[in-house]
Amino acid sequence: SAASDVYKRQVVSLSIVLIVMFAKVVGSVLPIAAEKLGVDPAVMANPLISTITDAVSLLIYFEIAKLMISF
Question: What is the percent of the chain with per-residue pLDDT over 70, rounded to a whole number?
């Protein structure tokens, strides 16, 4: 139905915006933190950023969907 399609579009759109914002924050903070801890940022950054972002992306998507269902 049309209402269901609008709901799906809203969930996906809001999820994408929040996931991109989260990824940018993690991608900029993690190398700075690694450098302050004395670890080479290049070694630590890529795999850890990807893992954290992927895991949290799923959580963001499901939480937004859960919140939208309750309305």
Answer: 100
